[in-house]
Amino acid sequence: MKAGKIVVLGATCGFLAAAIQVSVLIGARQAELAPAARCDACLATSQVEIEFARLEQRIAAALVPGTAVGPADVRLRFDALATRAAALDLPAIRTVLDQDTAAAATRERLAGALRALGPDIARIDQPGIGEAALAALAPLDFDLSRLSAAADRAGLARAAAAEAELARLHRILTAVLACLFALGAVLLALLGWHNRQLGLARDGQQRSSEKLRAASARLAAATAEVSTVNAQLQARNAVLDRRDRELGLQNQRFDAALNNMAVALCMVDGNDRLVVYNRRFAELFGLALAPIPGLLFADLLGMATGPQLEQVHARQRALSAEAGDTNFIQEIAPPAAAPHEGGPRTVSVSHRPMRDGGWLATYEDVTERRQAESRIAFLARHDPLTGLCNRAFFAEQLDAVLAEARRRGTPLAVIALDVDGFKDVNEGHGPAAGDALLREVGRRIVRAAGDGVVARLGGDEFAVIAPGAAAPGALATRLAEAVGGPFAAGGAALAPTVSVGYASWPADASSAEALTRHAESALAAAKGAGGGAIRAFAPDRDAARRARRALEADLRQALANREFTLAFQPLVDTRRVAITGFEALLRWHHPGRGAVSPADFVPLAEEIGLIGEIGNWVLGEACAQAARWPGDFTVAVNLSPAQFGLMDVVSSADEALARSGLGAARLELEITETVLLDDGEHMLEILHALRARGIRIAMDDFGTGHSSLSYLRRFPFDKIKIDQSFVRDMATRPDCITIVRSMAALGASLGMTTTAEGVETPEQFAQLQAAGCDQAQGYLFGRPQPPAQMSFALGADWASRGVAAA
After folding, report:
1. Which of 206, 389, 650, 762 can bridge 455 by disulfide, Cβ–Cβ 3.0-4.6 Å?
2. How many angstroms separate the CA atoms of 278 and 265, rounded?
3. What gap in Å lies between CA 469 and CA 505, rounded to an integer?
4. Where does the pLDDT of residue 105 fall: very low under 50, low under 70, confident under 90, or very high at 90 and above?
5. Tens of pLDDT along 246-261?
6. Where is the GGDEF domain (predicted)?
7. What are phi and psi of 46, to 5 degrees?
């Protein structure tokens, strides 16, 4: 039966393949009968006949005098006929035409006539040429008509043959499909019989499976019962194992905790026998590390390497007899096993009696802690470097001395001293030399101050409280002279000097705080006068100093209080007279002072080290504002020399651009020449790193520095900004306009943009246009405006000001 199925299946596949093959042949024959296949030759010959007639008509029209037909028209029809005639050479058309000998000959004669006529087309209107052409073409009129007829007959013959072949293939396909149908019926009958046999076998298998499942269920029940008993036994064993492990772990934890305690511990029972002690107890009193439970404590005392344990236990026993619980401090010698620990140790003992008559005691070595507490107490009132009073202790001492002076009615002076050039010593010779200098200056002041109180107030500033000083100026001079004199530190020969300021009670102040403040005010005046100066307190100087300090305090809070804003002044292209960018300018709006001039607060910010934080905010805010502008306007931000030392300019620029999404090419950083004066090579590396990111670098106030041209050679600036002093004087000083022209020409030759600052009149703008400046900036185009009031185009009245594009 299996062999029969294989035979039937093979025959079916064979007939199916034959049917597919016949279907493919039928498709091919039907393609041959497509109208396009039959009509290509007929269409081509018809188009040749039509174009031939049009050519003859154009030649005849060209021969008639007074007509508009000329050689060009004839050439057009000739080219069209040549194109149609060329189609007769295509393989599909040529195959049809070559079946008729006369048609093939006509095609050849037409090609020859066209080749002969081609050279005469250009002079077809000359006498005799047109007539000759018509005579040469006339014999082909009838032949071309026969050519079209021959093409049609050939196409019809091919179609008839293809249709006959197609009918034969259809008969073959019908026979093959009938055979396939018969074989399919046989195959279905075989499959039905086979499926019936499979059903009978499956029913028998299911009955066997049910019997097997029943037997498996009985076996599983017996196995489950055995497993339950085993599980109960295993659970009992697991509980016992877990308890054993937990007990061992608890013992390990207890031992680890006991021997890793920072304090020593000892436990004794009611029979005065040892229960346990830890490693720290053994180390503290020189005992063997392994305790011996049950040992009499009296025997343990004898095992110690020194008398320390016996001394402590004697006091412990005496105090506990009186009060039970007791805590006390005991000083003991270091154990014999650790003589390197030096002097006596301080032990804090905590003794607790137990209900069974025994006791538990802890022993903590607090030597280092008590020493640290003493050290902390000292440092809280003294300077760690010089050992002198610090500012807090100085204030306490001054309060006490002033109270005594009031009681006695004696004068009092506070003298403040500052070491001149200390920063140079610290940076030039190293911190060790600076520390040595401060210690030596402190010693010299102490020797010269007599019974006065000497303090180091911080940094390189010292102060002296001089009770009973009737002539504080003389004392100040004596202190300054005492500090002077050669001094060697770190291999360097130093000659320190000090600036001195002083104030007296009751003449200059009524309180200790005011007396100190006035002495420091006088010191500030002395420092401003130069090294080695001595100044007494003057009220007018103190007022200015207080005003500056108040401004400094407000400035430190301005950024956190959101008091800073930015204003933007337009940069104008001198050729197009259009705004191309803006310069960001910092503004401080103080709630009480109003608008504070940048000239007042920017130098102060640089001096107190706030310019880095403020500059970082300006850079981020300027980029954030520019990212919201329409178009591609640039934004320029000024960087002061101090910012390069107080902030990472490259990282700040990267962060500002990343947060705002502003393109680097739209950011312009303006620096002055002084940036490159100190550590010029390092500054050049920073500028190159910024420029590599696509950020533009401009030199501000060009021409006012020390060596502008040398910096242009060392770094390829993108822009130079001509200082407004040159622009302002162009109308009155011819040399200024000459300098401006030279700067503009220099910028152009180096590929740098030139921007003129401080443009206020149309005449100045016209002069800058003539001088070749690329950009202009000033009140003529607009004052700095907050973001909400910015205009990105010049006003409508701009043309009325008499300014025109270059």
Report:
1. 389
2. 6
3. 10
4. confident
5. 887 887 887 788 778 8
6. 410-539
7. -65, -45
Q: For the segment 354-392, what is each residue's pLDDT rounded down to a tens digit?
A: 888 888 888 888 888 888 777 777 777 888 889 999 998
Structure tokens at 461: 């500033």
b/e per residue 726-748 (b: at least 16 CB within 10 A): bbbebeeeeebbebbbebbebbe
Query: Amino acid identity of 621?
Result: E
CB 266 within 8 A of CB 279: no
3-state secondary structure at position 353: strand
- Containing H/E element for 714? helix 708-714
Distance, CA of 346 to CA of 706 (rounded, Å): 69
Phi-psi domain of 271 (left: phi exceeds 0; alpha: psi -120 through 50; beta: other): alpha
Burial, 247: exposed, middle or buried (Cβ in 10 Å; 0-12, 13-18, 19+)?
Answer: exposed
Residue 583: the pLDDT is 97
8 Å CB contact between 107 and 97: yes
Specify the pTM.
0.43
- Give which of 637, 564, 641, 635 is closest to 603, Cα–Cα: 641
Place of tokens 């000090």: 498
Q: Would you call 648 helix, strand, or coil by DSSP?
A: coil
Q: Is the pLDDT of residue 489 over 80?
A: no
Under 8 Å between Cβ of 673 and 707: yes
Q: Tell me the average pLDDT across 561-575.
A: 95
Strand order in the sheet with 274-277: 274-277, 264-268, 359-365, 345-353, 326-332
Rg (CA), the chain: 57
The pLDDT value given to residue 37: 44
Q: At residue 512, what is the residue type?
A: A
pLDDT at 417 over 50: yes
Q: What is the 8-class DSSP label of residue 674?
A: G
Choose among 676, 764, 667, 775: nearest CA to 722.
Answer: 775
CB contact at 8 A, 309 and 268 = no
Exposed, middle or buried, 448 (CB in 10 Å: 0-12/13-18/19+)? Answer: middle
Site of tokens 């301080």: 346
Provide the pairing of β-strand 345-353 with 359-365: antiparallel
**Which of 185-189, 448-452, 767-771 has the weakest average pLDDT?**
185-189
E strands, 210-289, in order: 264-268, 274-277
What is the per-residue pLDDT for 341?
55
- Strands 753-756 and 719-722 turn out to be parallel
| Contact of 62 with 74, CB cutoff 8 Å | yes
The strand pairing partners of 489, in sequence order, are 492
